[in-house]
Design brief:
Layout (H helix, E strand, L loop, with lengths): L5 E3 L2 E3 L3 E3 L21 E3 L16 E4 L2 E4 L8 H14 L5 E6 L4 H12 L4 E7 L16 H14 L4 E4 L7 H10 L4 E4 L3 E4 L1 E2 L4 E2 L5 E5 L4 H14 L4 E3 L6 H10 L3 E4 L1 H5 L3 H16 L15
Parallel strand pairs: 3-16, 4-7, 7-8, 8-9, 9-10, 10-15, 15-16
Antiparallel strand pairs: 1-2, 5-6, 6-14, 11-14, 12-13
Helix pairs in contact: 2-3, 3-4, 4-5, 5-6, 6-8
């Protein structure tokens, strides 16, 4: 058994490396660089019930140490996802685990899309994105309201038998408290952090640069925030954590594991260096050998006070 082989929520994975939703497309966009089957799993681009064109205007802007995006969940909708995307991935030789990221504007949306994704045999796990704006709650993100976060987790849990990962927003006062609430309502794991809310201004036009005014910041600059929140959540819950937010190299990955993440999700790092996951895997493998570890999971949470 390889030192990187793990079991996550009872599922055997060749290594603890997965992709961040939205940063790796639907699993085959990086095939010119490396075989996606070398990843432990692929978290697919976020899906909604209906097809969405996304936001208008400028949708991506570089920032020091990262990037801003307000793509707006552009996707072809669940019908195309079921009938074309998933079958074609398997036909084209993508055999690693597929994790669906589901989104909704209302509770009813989440329930319906969860029911449909639960029936897709090739989907191994579901990542429930509760950073979406709840149109019935004045536009506040589901994950920013503890009661609503618990409720949407509970309702999705009722209609899905697949392992359920709840993706948490960092744009809250107490992420550990929200993690506990979703755990109590049926989450099998949590993933954090999603992007940090930010903006950019075009000094020539004297107006916000992004078409949506605000966007989510990702990349190396948010790593200290992500590590701090993972560290806090690890001490608050008993369920495993998918860590993300600024993993650009193997050393970053080791820090996330030591803070408490069991699975490592790479996102913006792929835009900077398409082969980043291969280099991270090598660093983790070398670290196991240097430290005499039988399995990389031995260091999960090791940075916590004993």
């Amino acid at each position: 058994m390889s030192c990187l082989e793990i079991k996550f929520l009872g599922i055997s994975m060749k290594n603890p490396l997965v992709t961040s939703s939205g940063c790796f497309g639907f699993g085959k966009e990086y095939r010119d660089y490396f075989d996606p089957n070398q990843l432990g799993g692929i978290v697919l681009k976020g899906i909604t019930l209906e097809a969405r064109e996304g936001n208008y205007g400028v949708r991506i802007a570089e920032t020091p140490g990262g990037m801003l995006n307000c793509v707006g969940l552009e996707n072809p909708g669940i019908d195309v996802f079921e009938q074309e995307i998933i079958p074609n991935l398997r036909k084209e030789g993508i055999t690693t685990h597929l994790i669906a990221n589901i989104n909704g504007k209302t509770m009813e949306d989440y329930i319906e899309i969860a029911k449909r994704v639960d029936k897709i045999e090739d989907i191994t796990m579901i990542e429930l994105n509760i950073s979406c704006p709840n149109v019935k709650d004045g536009g506040m993100a589901f994950g920013a309201n503890p009661e609503v976060a618990g409720a949407v987790t509970r309702e999705v849990r009722k209609v899905s038998k697949k392992p359920l990962i709840v993706k948490l927003s960092p744009n809250v006062t107490d992420i550990a408290m929200i993690a506990k609430i979703v755990e109590e309502n049926g989450a099998d794991a949590v993933s954090l952090i999603n992007t940090v809310l930010g903006m950019a201004i075009d000094v020539k036009s004297k107006k916000p640069l992004l078409g949506n005014v605000f966007g989510g910041m990702s990349g190396g600059a948010i790593k200290p925030i992500a590590l701090r929140m993972i560290y806090q959540v690890y001490e608050a819950v008993k369920i495993p954590i998918v860590g993300m937010g600024g993993i650009l190299n193997g050393t970053d990955a080791l820090e996330f594991l030591m803070a408490g993440a069991s699975l490592l999700s790479i996102g913006t790092g792929f835009f900077i260096h398409p082969m980043v996951s291969i280099e991270v895997e090598k660093t983790l493998r070398d670290y196991c050998q240097q430290e005499g570890l039988k399995n990389i999971q031995e260091i999960v949470g090791i940075a916590h006070r004993r």
